[in-house]
UniProtKB/TrEMBL annotation, chain A:
It is an enzyme of class 2 (transferase). PANTHER family: N-ALPHA-ACETYLTRANSFERASE 20. The keyword Acyltransferase applies. InterPro entries: Acyl_CoA_acyltransferase, GNAT_dom, NatB_acetyltransferase_subunit. It comes from the Eukaryota. GO terms for cellular component: NatB complex. It comes from Anhinga anhinga (Anhinga). Catalytic subunit of the NatB complex which catalyzes acetylation of the N-terminal methionine residues of peptides beginning with Met-Asp, Met-Glu, Met-Asn and Met-Gln. Proteins with cell cycle functions are overrepresented in the pool of NatB substrates. Required for maintaining the structure and function of actomyosin fibers and for proper cellular migration. Residues 1-111 form the N-acetyltransferase domain. PROSITE patterns: GNAT. This is N-alpha-acetyltransferase 20.
TrEMBL record, chain B:
Keywords: Cytoplasm, Repeat, TPR repeat, Transferase. Non-catalytic subunit of the NatB complex which catalyzes acetylation of the N-terminal methionine residues of peptides beginning with Met-Asp, Met-Glu, Met-Asn and Met-Gln. May play a role in normal cell-cycle progression. Pfam families: NatB_MDM20. This is N-alpha-acetyltransferase 25, NatB auxiliary subunit. Belongs to the MDM20/NAA25 family. The keyword Repeat applies. Gene3D superfamilies: 1.25.40.1040. It is found in: Cytoplasm. The lineage of its organism: Eukaryota, Metazoa, Chordata, Craniata, Vertebrata. Component of the N-terminal acetyltransferase B (NatB) complex which is composed of NAA20 and NAA25.
Length: 132, 953
């Protein structure tokens, strides 16, 4: 049954930010599911796990960056309860002469953020150098 | 220092100089200047300046940090430790300097000193992390200790006591500390104690990983062979999540263990620490059936329970039970599974595991059964029924993949196969409709149809159908144009182009794969195996460089990871990082690219742009030194990176992997010995020996020739085992490991030429030490060697003759072996010329001596010894031969240019217009690649020819 372990996805999360400023949160650095193992809800499952851990660690929210053009991913995250907190301009540097691409910073509040303050959208986009 | 940050090193040096004029002893300015010097290539000056400052044992932050940066850039991390050792002596209470010292030790792996530094830190500032840095350093000492006993009786128990002390004083704070405790106990094989820690109060801190406690408990139960707990815990976890496959495995393993032990639960007590235990087949069957019933109620379909049932059947069959437990017929269960999950891309890999449960007589029936429930519809009669949406497409694709796995396509005759290809391509093109809105980064839904069609064509090609391989390339290029991110298309294109001898398109394809990091090790072989052997020398150097850059930076990166792990308390990762580094350092591919890169440099430069001696020196090559870890070589190649759906008996087997590693190792040995032999040539020359100490010099040289002779013996032995290996005539699957160049090396005669050349070296050395007096026999031997070498090299040339690409019955046929032979010829003639220049160096002084004598005697009675004529004849022959090969190559170039592929009548009327377009592209690419090869080989050979002219004495 080893073949079933071929499922090659990665979720890297880190707990960062400071508790005092209610910024302590879980962050998804990368998430990918191999083509053969798509359409099984694995990404949702993995996000669920990260949220669970972040809850245990007492985080205020979970966040992630996603390419603005990656509609499939943006929709999936929306379905999982994430919302766009802000746009980060030219976050993804492109190769071969194409323009740099913007990112959405998407967030989902955890139970510790009772008033859901962490996800109130920012009115203006930010530059990559302005994000901490 | 802004200048340094901006990369303006010259300005930085100037600014530093200005500052130093004003304040002569401004340490920091000196170091900044040194950094500038280092970055402008003045390493020696930089080092001297840095040492000047370091000798003063600076304690200011700026100097220390700047020196740290400098030493790191100099790749001298050990100097940083010295720096901070001095600093903490002067400022013994600095937390900062002590912690820098600890990290400096960590970079160089000084575990013992780390342990002390950690404790010193803890004494200054009693923070837990410092204490545990010290503990971790003890574990590292135990891991690196050669003596396992020492590690188990000293380092680990000491670490354990250190942690226990903190536990007793109730000072354990962080999760990392508990992890560390667990790690120590596990390594001490104190599994019971480890279990108690995980299950106890301390275990509550384990939250970063999901089910961290459960997983650790399970690991300990297994070590302790506590099957009741294993079983009960798996059961509990499966009740929570019936899709976690690993727990089915432990559930079954433990249940069958208990059955075999006839275990029974203790009366009137809990079954186990973890609750209820299943210890009979009936219970297991019931449990799985319940999971299935449970699943059918859940909103999201789960595969686990159904696959678990098949797994249970397989295990029962293995034990000789067939259907006593009424689990059902595997064929029917797989059919049901397909009905439920056939539209998921993973359905194929799920079922693949269990096809062994089907009797081969049922294959066709099974497939048609699946087809029957696949919703396809034909628009008209006689037309192929097609899927109406992506779900139906995926289901059908699964059936096709299973058909291939069950060998149904393999059993077809040529005509059936061609029809199948046509149908698959029709389905492929039809399926593109569903993916019109796909992004460039997404795959097309129907890509696998195309890939499967190509696999069928590959079968036909291997059966001798020459045209099929061109159609493979055509279809793959077509597929790639619609699905530019499909790595499988690219990988297969790479493999086929290489097999046809066309490397040029490969470089671009590979670079578009965007291989990163470890992939330079795992799939780099796709490039490095072929670039050099097909005469794409520039690309070959580049591919080696990609890999080497990764391997070298890995060394540095790993230190950084380790430092980070200490900082964040990720202790359990540290041994993993180190194991990873070791694994890369002993990588087969690393050793190969190291060797081939040096070979290439010599081939392209030695005695052309720099002397052989200088080239060898600049690579710090020496005949005595062997830096390849032969015993620990690790094959990190990913040999299954190319997908296939082949039945087990045609697939890449463990045996293939083993044999391929064996072959690669043998070939590497031959290459590395040859390289070391070449590197020994300059050491034999008198010219580099100091003249005044003749006695010692002679001793030095005589040990050099011993080295050469011993290497030659080793080479002979390596060649023998290589020949024996090849007698097995192993055929790897076409998608599996590529064969090495060894077979060509033997069959075209390069091997014999090269070994004879090194024997010649030995003879010439003998003549050199013996002198010309009484050397008739040696001279004759040398003369004969020259003659037979010319014959052998001529034979080798003959093996290069013929058309590289020919048109036969309207189909192109390439002869990549001719190209490979040409490359071997160039290499062999290069070695011949290096040996000749050694010979020249020996004979020249003899000749001038003789001529002096001649002048003195003023008569012609001093006869010229025959070896001079022999050598002159030999060099002349080499020159003629090389010129002939160059002419031959020119001829090949002309033929290749004249080859008008557009006029090639593409007889196959089945080809669509679009296909014809891709076929032209593909053939053009191959033609252009051959042209490129021949040009590069020709240019190099011309440069070699020029070097011959210098040899005429």
């Amino acid at each position: 049954a080893a073949a079933l372990m071929l499922c090659t996805f990665t979720v890297m999360g880190k707990a960062e930010g400071s508790v005092a400023r209610e910024e302590w949160h879980g962050h998804v650095t990368a998430l990918s599911v191999a083509p053969e193992f798509r359409r099984l809800g694995l990404a949702a499952k993995l996000m669920e796990l990260l949220e669970e851990i972040s809850e245990k660690k007492g985080g205020f929210f979970v966040d992630l960056f996603v390419r603005v053009s990656n509609q499939v991913a943006v929709n999936m995250y929306k379905q999982l309860g994430y919302s766009v907190y802000r746009t980060v301009l030219e976050y993804y540097s492109a190769s071969n002469g194409e323009p740099d691409e913007d990112a959405y910073d998407m967030r989902k509040a955890l139970s510790r953020d009772t008033e859901k303050k962490s996800i109130i959208p920012l009115p203006h986009p930010v530059r990559p150098e302005d994000i901490e | 220092s802004d200048y340094l940050d901006n990369g303006n090193n010259k300005m930085a040096i100037q600014q530093a100089d200005k500052l130093l004029k004003k304040h002569k002893d401004l340490h920091c300015a000196k170091v900044l200047k040194a950094i500038g010097l280092q970055r402008t290539g003045k390493q020696d000056e930089a080092y001297a300046l840095a040492q000047e400052v370091a000798a003063l044992e600076p304690t200011d932050d700026n100097s220390l940090q700047a020196l740290t940066i400098l030493y790191r850039e100099m790749h001298r991390p050990e100097l940083v430790t010295k720096l901070y050792e001095a600093a903490v002596k002067k400022v013994p209470n600095s937390e900062e300097y002590h912690s820098h010292l600890f990290m400096a030790y960590a970079r160089v792996g000084e575990y013992k000193k780390m342990q002390q530094a950690g404790m010193a830190l803890y004494k200054i500032v009693p923070k837990n992390p410092y204490y545990f840095w010290s503990v971790m350093s003890l574990i590292m000492q135990s891991i690196s200790a050669q003596d396992e006993n020492l590690s188990k009786t000293m380092f680990l128990p000491l670490a354990e006591r250190m942690v226990e002390k903190m536990v007793k004083e109730d000072k354990i704070e962080a999760e990392a500390e508990v992890e560390l405790y667990y790690m120590i106990l596990e390594r001490l094989e104190k599994y019971k104690e480890a279990l108690d820690v995980v299950r106890g109060k301390l275990g509550e801190k384990l939250t970063s990983e999901l089910q961290s406690r459960e997983n650790k408990c399970m690991a300990m139960y297994k070590k302790l062979r506590r099957w009741p707990e294993c079983n009960a815990l798996s059961r509990k976890l499966l009740l929570k999540n019936s899709d976690d496959w690993q727990f089915y495995i432990t559930y079954f393993d433990s249940a069958f263990q208990l059955i075999d032990e006839s275990w029974t639960p203790p009366p009137e007590e809990e079954h186990s620490l973890e609750g209820e235990v299943h210890y009979s087949i009936e219970q297991a069957v019931k449990f799985i059936e319940e999971r299935i019933t449970e699943e059918s109620k859940s909103s999201r379909p789960r595969r686990g329970p159904y696959l678990a049932k098949l797994e249970l059947i397989r295990r029962l069959r293995y034990r000789g039970c067939n259907d006593e437990y009424k689990l059902g017929d595997p064929e029917e269960l797989m059919f049901q599974y397909f009905k439920k999950f056939g539209d998921k891309p993973c359905c194929f890999t799920d079922l693949q595991v269990f096809v062994d449960l089907l009797p081969s007589s049922q294959y066709t029936k099974f497939i048609s059964q699946l087809l029957e429930v696949t919703p396809l519809s034909a628009t008209a009669e006689n037309e192929i029924a097609l899927p109406a949406d992506t779900k139906a497409l995926q289901q059908h694709l699964c059936v096709v993949q299973l058909s291939r796995l069950l060998g149904i396509y393999h059993a077809m005759d040529k005509k059936q196969k061609l029809t199948a290809v046509w149908e698959l391509m029709l389905r492929y093109r039809h399926g593109l409709e569903f993916g019109k809105s796909c992004l460039k980064t997404e795959l097309q839904f129907s890509d696998y149809y195309c890939l499967l069609a190509v696999h069928l064509l590959l079968d036909l090609w291997l059966e001798g159908e020459e045209a099929a391989v061109w159609q493979c390339l055509t279809l793959l290029e077509e597929g790639l144009s619609h699905s530019p991110s499909n790595a499988q298309f690219k990988l297969l294109l790479i493999r086929i182009y290489c097999r046809l001898g066309a490397f040029e398109p490969v470089a671009e394809l590979y670079s578009s794969l965007d291989a990163k990091h470890i992939q330079h090790d795992t799939i780099g072989y796709l490039l490095t195996r072929y670039a050099e052997s097909l005469g794409h020398y520039t690309a070959a150097s580049q591919s080696c460089n990609f890999a080497l850059r990764f391997f070298h930076s890995n060394q540095k990166d790993t230190s950084e990871y380790i430092i980070q792990a200490y900082k964040y308390g990720a202790f359990e990762k540290i041994p993993e990082f180190i194991a990873f580094r070791n694994r890369l350092n002993s990588s087969l591919h690393f050793a190969q690219v190291r060797t081939e890169r040096m070979f290439l440099d010599l081939l392209l430069e030695a005695n052309i742009s720099t002397s052989l001696e200088e080239s060898i020196k600049s690579m710090s090559l020496s005949p005595e030194e062997d830096d390849i870890p032969w015993k620990d070589l690790r094959d990190n190649r990913d040999l299954t990176v190319l997908f296939n759906w082949d039945p087990k008996d045609r697939d890449i087997s463990e045996e293939h992997r083993k044999l391929s590693l064996e072959e690669e190792t043998m070939w590497l040995r031959i290459r590395s010995l040859t390289l070391r032999l070449v590197s020994g040539l300059p050491t034999l020359s008198h010219t580099i020996q100091p003249k005044n100490s003749e006695k010692t010099a002679e001793n030095g040289v005589s040990s050099k020739i011993d080295t050469i002779r011993s290497l030659l013996q080793q080479l002979e032995a390596a060649v023998d085992s290589g020949k024996k290996f090849l007698e097995q005539k192993i055929q790897y699957p076409v998608l599996g490991p590529p064969p090495t160049r060894m077979a060509g090396f033997f069959s075209n005669g390069s091997c014999q030429c090269q070994t004879s050349l090194f024997y010649l070296v030995s003879d010439i050395y003998e003549l050199d030490t013996n002198g010309l007096e009484d050397s008739a026999e040696i001279q004759e031997r040398i003369g004969n060697s020259f003659k037979s070498l010319v014959e052998r090299l001529t034979d080798l040339f003959n093996k290069c003759k013929g058309d590289l690409i020919e048109v036969r019955d309207g189909t192109l046929k390439t002869h990549p072996n001719l190209l490979e032979n040409l490359v071997f010829f160039v290499e062999t003639i290069s070695i011949a010329l290096w040996v000749s220049s050694y010979c020249d160096g020996v004979l020249r002084p003899f000749k001038s001596n003789l001529q002096k004598k001649k002048k003195k005697k003023k008569e012609s009675s001093v006869a010229m010894p025959p070896v001079f004529t022999h050598f002159l004849d030999y060099v002349t022959e080499l020159q003629i031969l090389t010129s002939n090969v160059i002419d031959h190559i020119k001829g090949l170039e002309i033929i290749l240019t004249a080859l008008k592929l557009e006029e090639l009548s593409l007889k196959d009327t089945l080809l669509l217009q679009e296909e014809k377009k891709f076929t032209k592209t593909v053939q053009g690419k191959v033609q252009s690649s051959y042209h490129h090869s021949v040009q590069e080989i020709g240019e190099l050979l011309k440069k070699r020819l020029d070097t011959i002219k210098k040899l005429k004495i």
